[in-house]
Fold this sequence. Notes:
The chain contains nine helices and four strands. The protein has helices at 7-15, 30-40, 60-67, 75-80, 97-100, 107-112, 115-139, 152-159, 189-192, and strands spanning 52-57, 83-90, 143-147, 164-173. A four-stranded antiparallel β-sheet has the order 1-2-4-3. Helix 1 crosses helix 7 (115-139) and helix 2 crosses helix 7.
Amino acid sequence: MSLVLDPAAQDLLFREARTxxxxxxEPVTDEQVQAIYDLVKYGxxxxxxxxxxxxxxxxxxxxxRLVGHMAEGNRPKTATAPLVAILSADNEFxxxxxxxxxxxxxxxxxxxxxxxxxxxxxxxxxxxxAAYFIVGVRAAGLAAGPMTGFDHDGxxxxxxxxxxxxxxxxxxxxxxPDAWFPRSPRLAYDxxxxxx
Length: 196
């Protein structure tokens, strides 16, 4: 059985898509980010908890503060990308559950009254949403450069609060010169899939 998704779309989203390391100076607009979010918000999460929060870093002052928290090798990429997004998990996501899960509003207290439980659920589901976000950036015809090499506590203190856990920083824009490293190998189907 073949995939229903058009081969060109498969290439755009997966086969030809790469982590960009350089970008042109073409801006990424608020309208593009809105379109990306309006697509990826439909990706599933447990209990529809939707804990991902996106902080867009646009001003030169904020960019400079963020670059100071990046790992040395990631600083030039973050300094020059047209747009940078900090993706974080909202550990108080349960406050939105009565709206997001109207058929089971008591889930807020029945399952998520304890902070450690919320943190685990938020981290897992926000990471899932971060993957949707990266694919959404690609669907917009842009390149994403997701990175976890940064001072997580520093980014939290600088841009977030104690209720948000930073997951990754994503550089976003049109790929620039020599944007790609060689593609690394992938595991074969039979190395991943087991039938029992």
